[in-house]
Predict the structure.
Amino acid sequence: MSDKTIRLTQTVKGAGCAAKLAPGDLDRALCGLDLPVDENLLVGLDRADDAGVYRISDELALVQTLDFFPPMVDDPFSFGQIAAANALSDIYAMGGTPKTAMNIVAFPGKTMDISVLRAIIEGGLNKLREAGVVLVGGHTIDDSELKYGLSVTGYIHPERILIKKNLQVGDRLILTKPLGTGIVTTAIKAGIADQEVTGRVTQAMATLNRVAAETLEAFEVHACTDITGFGFLGHLAEMVVDSECGVRIWPDRLPLYPEALEWAAMGFIPAGAYNNRNFRGKFVDFSATVSQPVQDLLFDPQTSGGLLIAVADAEADRLVAALQANGIGSAAIVGEVVAQPIERIIVE
Ligand code: CO
Ligand code: CO
């Protein structure tokens, strides 16, 4: 049995996707590198999309991604579930079907009981089973801090890849999960989040984006991504920068955890939110009515966040209704794609 007294979040510095290297630093590391050129590499590092895509034949391509991070919740089984849901999410965001996965583990074997690792891997397996994905292997190293995640491989049709950079003027933007997991998990780590909110947010982070991805297949979706470490505005910026259009966001319609707004106002904001704002803030115009806590929430790094979907205007209401009918109650239209000003995000 696992040791119930251990609080995983107290054993690590970062938490979940908030532990990502600052996006500007990653850009500096990759900038100017001689990246591979291959006619079958349909989506690679140069495109900065959710996952890489490699064509096998005219009908089949591989879609591959990996994600791992330190724990953002205290319960090992839940951490495993969340890490798996988060790793699978990039496959769903591309419109792919995940097939196989491998565990990536860094474990402090000298200070933590091995039963903790067992519970984490059980949590991961639980979500892989739900996704219909087979665990085929993994790699474990001894490390001072716990980290867990997976690399995931899936199938995708080479002509049905949902990329980020394909916004069309008039599209409506739909978000499928509430924002604020970075702020809430900062509060969990600080010990001020009660069991009810911890349970609610843990369950949302452990929810697969599978149903959302399957629902949108029947609609005219132009672009899609998932909201993770760069926050809502960071990931939205990846859709808008170098495009021919801009977006307007309606913050009153954003699904969010009310507790996150409260705690943001109290200063429980992960460092990643500041990194995200420093990197992408220059593309964003906030109207004077958008409060500081709402701005912080929009840059808050999300762990296993929802899909952000650009869908043809005429289909937007029907897609939201279909998502809600399929159990995704927080799905909402949160903005629109506009012709002007290009490459700008206006938060009204
Ligand atoms: Co992603
Ligand atoms: Co990722």
